[in-house]
Amino acid sequence: MSSLSLKGGDLSRLRQLNSVSVIKELRGAEPATLSILAERTGLSRPSTKDVVDELTRLGWVEEVPPATGTMGRPARRYRFRADGGHLVGVDIGAHNIRAAVADLEGNVLAETRRPARPDAPLEERLAAIKRVVMNCLDLGGLTMSDLWMVAVGTTGLVTPEGRIIMSASISAWKDLDLSRLLEETFPCRVLIENDSRLAALAETRRGVARGARDVVFLHIGRRMGTALILDGKLHRGFGAAAGEIVMLPETGWVTAPEDLNSAAIVPEGTPIEDAAGFTLAAARNGDPTALDAVGRFTKKLAVGAAAAILLLDPEIVVLGGGFSRSADVLLPPLRHALERVCLRMPKLSGSTLGDECVVLGAIDYAIDHLDQFFFAPDGPALRPPVRPAVVPKPGLSSK
Amino acid sequence: MSSLSLKGGDLSRLRQLNSVSVIKELRGAEPATLSILAERTGLSRPSTKDVVDELTRLGWVEEVPPATGTMGRPARRYRFRADGGHLVGVDIGAHNIRAAVADLEGNVLAETRRPARPDAPLEERLAAIKRVVMNCLDLGGLTMSDLWMVAVGTTGLVTPEGRIIMSASISAWKDLDLSRLLEETFPCRVLIENDSRLAALAETRRGVARGARDVVFLHIGRRMGTALILDGKLHRGFGAAAGEIVMLPETGWVTAPEDLNSAAIVPEGTPIEDAAGFTLAAARNGDPTALDAVGRFTKKLAVGAAAAILLLDPEIVVLGGGFSRSADVLLPPLRHALERVCLRMPKLSGSTLGDECVVLGAIDYAIDHLDQFFFAPDGPALRPPVRPAVVPKPGLSSK
DNA sequence: GGTACTTATTAAGGAGACCATCATTAGTAC
DNA sequence: GTACTAATGATGGTCTCCTTAATAAGTACC
After folding, report:
1. What does the DSSP assignment read for B257-296?
2. Degrees (nearest 5) of the Cα angle A185, A95, A125?
3. What is the edge-to-edge ordering of all strands in the sheet holding B61-64?
4. In the A/B pair of chains, how many CB contacts fall below 8 A?
5. What SUPFAM superfamilies does UniProt report for this protein, alphabetically (chains A, B) (predicted)?
6. What does the pLDDT read at residue B143?
7. Which residues, 6 or more positions from A273, have their beta carbon under 8 angstroms from its beta carbon?
8. Backbone phi, then psi, for B111, in 5-degree steps?
9. Rg (CA), chain A
10. pLDDT in tens, B81-101
């Protein structure tokens, strides 16, 4: 949101700008009176009334009972109608498909999950996605027609247009126009983005990094990766390949997970998905072998992290991904390693949003795009809460 | 420019937006007729006329003789008055102080240079700066009162407010409010920024990287550094410490210049500032020892460059700094080293702006700030070309 | 219960900025 | 000199915002 290409126009454009100002003040905030809105938007009271009346008529805003017990005549209060439309965020992982439905303020109404086989054929996977979303809508008491937008986070390289180039962990993901495929299933626009990036977005909008403009998100788990929020926006890079510092040999990131997975202390036969957790738990209890493994891991982690920090000087670094459940074990040695090389030490935190991270990020991503659509200077004016006929594609509209 | 926080207001705000649209169309472009402006801005002809008339009255725009030989009644033509105000860009290096004065379109009118001693005391250095700028103004036939803004690029760590924390190569630069000091000398706002960053900006606005949104600038010379242009804007980072990947031990950047400076082929007694040039010239002629040294240097260079490329996926990487005069020698081995690790290979080029890079970047930086000032939503409306009384400080106004 | 005070609402008048339309003007083409 | 072309200038109308002033609906206090 926020930065759209600034452009003039006729008087209706001015009204549009003022409408947006009012909605921005109301959304995600307590109900407000006309006086408050007038002061915050800089408009006069009568004009504010005009704008609010129009927004009410269009269905964006509704009146709530006035607050009691105040001096003077009780002021009418208005709030944003977050339930005017609904968004779905989907997280398509190799082993799990998650979905959550939220209102226009990003409040989650319902959430569902369903296991998946990493090697499932495309048809099966698409059907599973549909089922998860339908379930989720049911749970929230909604139907397909309530959907304004679906945003999907998944592993692999994703183009701004919603094509998947490839994914190492999902065999069906191979040169695929996932956006188009899912738009045949759902009656609305479907956005696709890399899952780590969406997790980073969620942490920036509602997690530990809330309010930060520059954030480095370290995805640590059986696969390593990074995602960047720069100037408050998701950074994709020219070819949507940003965040791949794992490919730098000097970091040792490709093999780093092995330090935890194959530590000498892990009992024979432990399933691979539990191995690192075992090592980290042992380290928490002070086991020297485990601590040694953690030391080796964080040393590698620190190399890539330091590269990102020195280059970008972020306000905060967030640890996410599977291993971040043990952030308490990893943070001290990581901080120690970073302090030796970093010019200015950023804040350092573990993710707080946990497994829902990607789904929440997808919802936030969808909200960003709704803004771009409704508030665009040359787009359609503010509309009643019905499904927009055409929404510009992500990468294209941002110009 | 471009992205300012979108806000409504009264009718004058609309006029302001439309005025900005017109100026943006005129600035840096050929004189235009009302019909052309009306079409490009989306305004009606009468309104365009109104806006242009007002801008003419304020001194932002002037009429030029109509084009001849066209069908129909000759249209009046208007152009942006780039000479309505002037900006000075200054490059304060350890051994040289450069300055250039430019008009509001960034066209350089005059340029001066003056040697300096790295260990000169503060007073002497400040006096030298003043003399260089005065000289430059003289050469351009201007006086101090024509100055709208001065932008300074210098080595070291610079805060967004214009304080210098420290600099390794200029002894007088030590915890210093350079912005304030120079504002006592010049009758206008003085902006300070790191020199590499300004060089990167110049390359993005008028050099090899023109038009690119994401640019990585590698400063290679007796000191190594990087600067980033992200989403078209200079990236400073939270503590203005971005671009310091030189501090990452794994890159070997701290000692990398030694590979070229102390190559076995360099004759005894060669002044340090010519040593690398000697090695690079020898390498160009195929000398094996020199080529070996270049190989060692580019290998280190590639590590830091790869970190930046993999993280950010820029459109283009620009080689700047003293060594970049021999970019033709360095680029092939660098490209070769990068191709082995980069997921998507960016364009790779040497700087084309040469020694004037920082001064030009300073001018472009000043232009960006003028925009922010004049076109800010809550700032003063468009004004006649007289020196603005107060211009918001860089970092603060950008919110 | 009545009066004073406080804060919102409502209504009226006015100014600024935009638009559409049309008659007029100043060139070129032949 | 006539036909054609394209820009100019003037008129009237609409929309959005602002200011000001009268009215309304509560609380506080006697």
Report:
1. HHHHHT-TTSPTT--HHHHHHHHHHHHHTT-HHHHHHHHH
2. 25
3. B32-33, B77-80, B61-64
4. 186
5. Actin-like ATPase domain (SSF53067), Winged helix' DNA-binding domain (SSF46785)
6. 93
7. A222
8. -145, 140
9. 23
10. 999 889 999 999 999 999 999
Cβ of residue B12 lies below 7 Å from strand D: no
For helices B327-339 and B272-284, give the axis angle rounded to 10 degrees. Answer: 70
pTM of the model: 0.90
Structure tokens of A84?
């005017």
CB-based burial label for B123 (10 Å; 0-12, 13-18, 19+): exposed
Q: How far is CA A304 from the centre of its chain?
A: 23
Q: What is the mean pLDDT of residues B153-182?
A: 91
Q: Are A189 and A183 in contact (CB under 8 A)?
A: yes
- Token look-up 């949507």 returns A240
Interface of B with A in 275-294 (CB under 8 A): none
User: What digits encode the pLDDT tens for the residues B15-72?
Assistant: 999 999 999 999 989 999 999 999 999 999 999 999 999 999 988 999 999 888 888 8
Give the pLDDT score at B157: 87
**Please, is A396 exposed, middle or buried when counting C-beta atoms within 10 Å of its C-beta (0-12, 13-18, 19+)?**
exposed
Query: What contacts A346, CB < 8 A, 6 or more positions away?
Result: A216, A309, A313, A314, A315, A316, A317, B238
**How long, in residues, is chain A?**
399
Asked if A238 and B213 come within 8 Å (Cβ–Cβ), the reply is: yes
For the stretch A343-396, pLDDT in tens is 999 999 999 998 999 999 999 999 998 876 666 544 444 554 444 444 444 433
Q: What is the pLDDT of residues A307-341, one digit of tens each?
A: 999 999 999 999 999 999 999 999 999 999 999 99
Yes or no, beta carbons of B313 and A231 under 8 Å apart: no
Return chain A residues 4..63 having CB < 7 Å to nucleic acid strand C. 8-11, 33-35, 45-46, 49
**Nucleotides in C strand less than 7 A from protein CB:** 5-12, 15-21, 25-29
Tokens of A65: 């009972």
Closest CB to B341 among A8, A248, A313: A248
Nearest CA in chain B to A235: B312
Tell me how far apart the alpha carbons of residues A317 and A208 are, in angstroms, rounded to a whole number. 10
SS3 A118: coil
Q: For the purposes of burial, counting CB atoms within 10 Å of the CB of A175, is it exposed (0-12), middle (13-18) or buried (19 or more)?
A: exposed
Confidence of residue B290 (pLDDT cuts 50, 70, 90): very high
In 3D space, the residue among B183, B192, B182 whose CA is nearest the CA of residue B128 turns out to be B182
| Mean per-residue pLDDT over chain B, rounded | 90
Q: Distance (Å, rounded) from C-alpha A352 to C-alpha B192?
A: 39
Q: Rounded CA gap, B78 and B60, in Å?
A: 10
Tell me which chain A residues have a C-beta less than 8 angstroms from the C-beta of B239. 313, 344
Instruction: Check pLDDT > 90 for residue A207.
Output: yes
Q: What is the mean pLDDT of residues A20-39?
A: 94
Structure token digits, residue B184 = 């006592």
Would you state the pLDDT for residue A386? 46
φ, ψ dihedrals at B85, nearest 5°: -160, 170
In the numeric block, the tokens 């359609």 are attached to A380
Closest-CA residue of chain B to A243 = B311
Contact of B318 with B209, CB cutoff 8 Å: yes
CA-to-CA separations, A377 to A215, B47, B371, in angstroms, rounded:
29, 18, 20
Q: How many alpha carbons lie under 13 Å from residue B29 in its C-beta half-sphere?
A: 15
A200-209, A267-276, B215-224, B317-326: range with lowest mean pLDDT: A267-276
Residue matched to tokens 């045949």: A184
Looking at residue B279, its pLDDT comes to 96
